[in-house]
Amino acid sequence: MLAPGFARADLERLLKKYPEESLMIVGHEPDFTEVISELTGATLKLSKAGTALVDLNRSWRNGRLLWLIPPKVAMA
């Protein structure tokens, strides 16, 4: 899990350190909402225990929000 204060620059460092095709990241709000919004241009609010899938381009400069699952749906 990432510490509070996670920002886009931290994501870029993390992706360079772990260049795998897929990477799952767990962290805190409002940091994740802000980073996802910066990358995708989406207006969203990631709920506590929510899940998002973002497809990033290889430059890590932008991406697409593929889905956003609120905790109520995940628990169903």
Report on the structure:
The termini are far apart. The chain is globular and about 35 Å long. Helices cover 33% and strands 17% of the residues. It has three helices and two strands; from the N terminus they run ααββα. With 76 residues, the chain is α+β, with helices and mostly antiparallel strands. Strands 1-2 form a two-stranded antiparallel ribbon.
Give a brief description:
The chain contains three helices and two strands. The chain is α+β, with helices and mostly antiparallel strands and 76 residues long.
* Poorly predicted segments: none
Radius of gyration from CA coordinates? 12 Å
Q: Total number of helical segments?
A: 3
Shape: globular
Distance between the termini: 24 Å
The neighbouring-strand order within the major sheet is 1-2
Largest sheet: 2 strands, antiparallel
Helix-and-strand structural type: alpha+beta
Q: Which percent range describes the beta-strand content?
A: 15-25%
Number of E strands = 2
Average pLDDT for all residues: 85
SSE pattern: HHEEH
Please identify the oligomeric state. Answer: single chain
| Residues in helix, % | 25-40%
